[in-house]
Write a structure and sequence with these properties.
The protein has 746 residues and is of the alpha/beta class. It is 41% helix and 16% strand. The chain has three domains: 308 residues, 3-Layer(aba) Sandwich (Aminopeptidase), CATH 3.40.630.10; 219 residues, Glucose Oxidase, domain 1; 183 residues, Transcription Elongation Factor S-II, Chain A. It is built from 23 helices and 17 strands. Strand 6, helix 6 and strand 7 form a beta-alpha-beta unit.
């Protein structure tokens, strides 16, 4: 028994020693860091999250509202009380709100849409009607249109290809599309490109209504009259204030005339509930829809056009509103000009409890706990900057304008941007720069899941195994490594990563917090605390996870970037691109053969009817050699650097600073000064939102989208641009290797 106790104590001590090995830290500093993190965890208190959410969600707090300003002042006061140098940075942006909204079905069965959500006695903030933004899509065009209605499924390009095969033309029509399948702004954009004069977007119960579970207040899912507000600005072209692209929207900034702002939608767009959608869909005649287009309403879905016409009239107040970004700094004790930036937005479409306050209050508790550590003697090496962004919901306004306003400082000083948004019960999810992947996996080993008691990494792995099919499960077994997703758009990391080339990560918990409250009046404190994260356990889990990322990045002797994971990921993307090209070639040859065969048959029998589509241009040869050679050089350099990385913690302080600068500036090498074709604001050559997917990412976007659009000249040019960017990136890696090899560096 005595021997067993001794062995157990030895193993415990050994495990503790193992736990103190942290990426980027010398052994002694890893021990100190681990101790600070234990003290950090001990400070966290879920009751604070509850208190702050109750206040911040007590009234609607959209851009320009009294509560928006009050919330910013409330948060700024708290950050100051925790010891941070705090300011409210203001910007003035274009933010339209509805002046009038009308949607009606004319004809034999007229119907006037309610366009209103119900007040519930079970939810105390739903009755704040005078303070709520009406149900609308921001940056829709003004318009008064009457036309037949056509159902376009999700309203993405592939759906219009299907409509063309069915012989349906939307030119001069109003279209109705289901939410989902892409970012909402893509739907009116594509509709306009096909000649539609208006767009209606509705929430089908199949997606987040009664098909998924009990509707609110019995359950968390979308009620029949629930509506998803949201922006339809063309953010895949550029986010932020549409009148000040590329520069901060300060009070005296030079602004475009509104008619010249290319990101404002060209046709009127309106979101509606499935209750209001039902009579419109019932009016549709024509063919029944393909099976994959059907929703869950108790009707037969038809494509249209409608038997009767629809009248849509929208008019907006095109006002300039003041934004309130809360910026709180804790200066670094050794490297004040290296910035670790942590952010979450605070504005909501209405009361915004889940989105965004579930994330915002976790950030605040994280910052408060670090403030408490500072009172105990903690001094971060690098400057930590906490940001509460305003105006994210309409167009990433607050983060974009601040980043554009401070871009020169950020290009020189920003080490990393760490983002969160909404949060809830469930599993850790993260996307980001792939140099951060190894580091993120280390973090997930060190945070305990509040529901199961295992690490959040173990719980995510268990969930993946349980939900995988048989073939996928066999590959997953034993592989607990978390692969970071790639960042597209949809939250405040965009200006940092995709415009300025700052390594970024976006994270949060979810998967057991499903519901249909998104962007409605029902995204409230009452719903959140009942269904989303009772007790704020996963708010604390987010504080622990992002807090460790922030603390380790702020304190690391050598920044924990891994070039190997970046190489492997980009190499996979290149393989996908080449497969896409070959698939496009095969599909083109097959389609052209079918057309030619039918034309041959027609020539033999003129009585046959065949409407011939155009024969597609043959897919040419694209030269990938520059890209392949660049990837080979990156592979060799990344592997060589990784072998030397262990020496980094032994460098002199001066050389460590030099190496760290190389490490965090590497991401800047992936930024191309001219940006992507037709959208120069997006400058990152590896990650961007898709031009026709919105939130959805396109990796190696210049090449990938050129192939998808069959623009072969542009595809070849983009291949060479990416190859040059990767070569610049490899040069940075080599600079790091040279420094690590210097005998005088130690």
């Amino acid at each position: 028994m005595k021997n067993l106790i001794v062995v157990s104590m030895f193993l415990f001590s050994f495990n503790c020693m193992q736990a103190q090995k942290l990426m980027g830290f010398a052994e002694a500093n890893a021990v100190k860091e681990t101790e600070w993190e234990k003290k950090f965890d001990a400070q966290l208190d879920a009751r604070n999250l509850d208190t702050w959410m109750k206040f911040l969600s007590s009234h609607p707090h959209h851009v320009g509202s009294p509560q928006d300003k009050a919330n910013a002042e409330y948060m700024a006061s708290l950050f100051r009380s925790w010891g941070y140098q705090t300011e409210i940075a203001s910007y003035w942006v274009l933010f339209p709100t509805p002046k009038s909204r009308l949607l009606e079905l004319t004809g034999s069965k007229p119907y006037k849409a309610k366009l209103q959500e119900s007040v519930l006695k079970e939810d105390k903030t739903t009755g704040q009607l005078a303070e709520q933004l009406p149900t609308y899509n921001a940056y829709s065009a003004d318009g008064d249109v009457t036309a037949e209605l056509v159902f376009v499924n999700r309203g993405i390009p592939a759906d219009y290809e299907e409509l063309e095969r069915m012989g349906i033309d939307v030119k001069g029509k109003i279209v109705i599309a289901k939410y989902g399948g892409s970012w909402r702004g893509i739907k009116p954009k594509v509709a306009y490109e096909h000649g539609a004069i208006g767009c209606i977007i509705y929430s089908d119960p199949e997606d987040d209504g009664y098909t998924q579970g009990d509707v609110y207040p019995e359950g968390p899912f979308r009620r029949a009259d629930g509506v998803q507000r949201g922006s339809v600005m063309d953010m895949p072209v550029y986010p932020g204030d549409p009148l000040t692209p590329g520069v901060g929207a300060t009070k005296d900034a030079k602004r475009l005339d509104r008619k010249d702002a290319i990101t404002i939608m060209k046709i009127p767009v309106l979101p509606i509930s499935y209750e209001d959608a039902l009579p419109l869909l019932q009016s549709l005649g024509g063919q029944t829809v393909p099976a994959t287009w059907r929703g869950s309403l108790p009707i037969t879905y038809h494509v249209g056009p409608s038997k009767d016409k629809v009248h849509l009239k929208l008019e907006f107040n095109w006002d300039q509103k003041q934004l309130y970004d809360v910026i709180a700094k804790m200066p670094g004790s050794e490297l004040p000009d290296e910035w670790v930036i942590r952010g979450n937005h605070h504005d909501g479409w209405v009361n915004g409890a889940a989105d965004p306050l579930a994330g915002m209050v976790a950030v605040m508790e994280e910052a408060r706990a670090i403030g408490e550590l500072a009172k105990q003697g903690f001094k971060p090496k690098r400057t930590i900057i906490y940001c509460g962004w305003d105006g994210e919901e309409p167009a990433l306004l607050g983060s974009t304008e601040w980043a554009e306003d401070h871009q020169q400082d950020l290009k020189q000083k920003a080490v990393i941007y760490i983002n969160s948004d909404g949060n809830g019960r469930g599993f850790i999810n993260a996307s980001g720069s792939h140099t951060l992947e190894t580091f993120f996996n280390e973090i997930t080993n060190d945070v305990t899941d509040p529901q199961t008691g295992v690490s959040i990494r173990e719980r995510k792995y268990a969930n993946a195994v349980v939900n995988a099919d048989k073939a996928a499960r066999a590959k997953l077994l034993g592989n607990k490594y978390i692969k970071l997703g790639a960042l597209g758009a949809g939250s405040d990391y965009s200006p940092f990563l995709q415009h300025l080339g700052i390594a970024s990560i976006n994270l949060g918990f979810g998967g057991e917090n499903q519901g249909g409250e998104y962007h409605s009046i029902y995204d409230s404190y009452d719903l959140f605390t009942r269904f989303k994260d009772p007790g704020f356990q996963y708010g604390i889990a987010l504080s622990k996870t992002a807090g460790r990322i922030t603390l380790r990045m702020a304190n690391a002797d050598v920044l924990p970037f891994d070039f190997n994971t970046f190489y492997k990921t980009v190499n996979d993307y290149a393989t996908e691109i080449k497969a896409l090209l070959e698939n496009t070639r095969t599909e083109t040859e097959t389609e052209n053969k079918i057309i030619n065969d039918k034309l041959y048959d027609l020539a033999r029998d003129p009585k046959k009817q065949f409407k011939s589509p155009a024969v597609k241009e043959t897919v040419p040869f694209l030269n990938f050699s520059n890209l392949e050679n660049a990837l080979t050089r990156l592979k060799d350099s990344a592997e060589a650097f990784q072998k030397l990385y262990g020496r980094a913690s032994q460098l002199s302080a001066v050389k460590q600073k030099e190496l760290n600068n190389i490490l965090y500036m590497a991401e800047r090498s992936l930024v191309y000064v001219n940006g992507l074709p037709r959208r120069p604001w997006y400058k990152h050559e590896i990650y961007a939102p898709g031009y026709y997917t919105g939130y959805g990412v396109k990796t190696l976007p210049g090449i990938r989208e050129a192939i998808e659009q069959r623009n072969w000249k542009e595809a070849q040019e983009s291949i060479d641009i990416v190859a040059n960017a990767l070569q610049s990136y490899t040069d940075q890696v080599k600079n790091g290797m040279s420094l690590l090899k210097e005998p005088k560096a130690y």
